[in-house]
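User: Could you go from structure to sequence for me? I need the amino acid at each position, not a summary. Structure tokens:
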């Protein structure tokens, strides 16, 4: 776990200070691999298109574990986690919206906040921007982070390739791939909600989460993750109502976007703190 924490911190530093390296996140090799599968069935596309690369990654992960006192394993973990992070840089995409000189360019820049596979135009309104920011944070940061912590580099690759497959148009797109992507999102989305309750207004988050499930009685294990959208908007509204030092007008698109990004960063801090506590507990335990 200590190696994973160090790898996460190194990846965050690279994202912060070397943003141009985002060009290295090129999955054209994987799309070529899918192309070789041709008109494979949905289960075959999922098993071979995702399973084979993940299996190769897992074998490398095991093979490198004890070489050079774990240094090679750390380097491999950093490389895979950085590769699977994003693929676009969320901080830079939000910054591009904020710094756009006019409404036309702000609308165009905000389209980068859409998740993979989304084709509908994102309206430049406060609620839509808040929802898009949290959805992008789940897909770009927290989903890959959760599976990396749980399974290591192969977990990060499993999450990213499954999300890409679930969002692809054409013959590889299927309810099976989309369901697999939703399954991998379920736990990170709930942990985001819990961290948001700790980092923002607990009462507002808990009440919104409970009311959402009462209105949608499919059960808490349902793959419907719409509660995250409602919680995100409620958290921004609660911070504005509480007069938080970072909070702006919740009805202003740029203000709401800024508030949403502040909350996403807080959630990341909560996650990193929890991981660090687990590492320290292991050392002193």
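Assistant: Here is the amino acid at each position, in order:
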């Amino acid at each position: 776990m200590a190696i994973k924490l160090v790898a996460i911190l190194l990846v965050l530093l690279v994202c912060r200070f070397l943003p141009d390296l985002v060009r290295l996140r090129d999955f054209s090799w994987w799309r070529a691999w899918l192309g070789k599968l041709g008109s494979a069935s949905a289960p075959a596309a999922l098993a071979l298109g995702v399973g084979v690369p993940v299996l190769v990654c897992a074998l490398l992960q095991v093979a490198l574990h004890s070489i050079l006192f774990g240094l090679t394993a750390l380097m491999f973990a950093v490389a895979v986690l950085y590769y699977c992070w994003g693929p676009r840089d969320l901080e830079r995409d939000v910054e591009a919206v904020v710094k756009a000189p006019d409404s036309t360019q702000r609308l165009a820049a905000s389209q980068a906040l859409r998740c993979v596979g989304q084709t509908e135009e994102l309206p430049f309104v406060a609620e839509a921007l808040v929802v898009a920011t949290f959805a992008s944070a789940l897909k770009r940061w927290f989903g890959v982070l959760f599976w990396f912590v749980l399974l290591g580099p192969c977990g990060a690759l499993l999450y990213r390739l499954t999300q890409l497959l679930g969002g692809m148009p054409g013959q590889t797109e299927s309810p099976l791939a989309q369901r697999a992507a939703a399954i991998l999102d379920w736990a990170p989305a709930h942990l985001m909600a819990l961290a948001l309750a700790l980092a923002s207004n607990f009462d507002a988050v808990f009440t919104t989460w409970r009311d959402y499930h009462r209105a949608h009685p499919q059960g808490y294990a349902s793959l419907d993750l719409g509660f995250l959208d409602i919680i995100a908007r409620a958290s921004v509204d609660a911070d504005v109502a509480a007069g938080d030092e970072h909070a702006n007008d919740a009805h202003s698109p740029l203000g709401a976007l800024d508030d949403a990004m502040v909350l996403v960063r807080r959630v990341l801090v909560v996650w990193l703190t929890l991981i660090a506590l687990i590492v320290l507990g292991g050392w002193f335990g």
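One structural detail worth keeping in mind: The chain has a mean pLDDT of 88.
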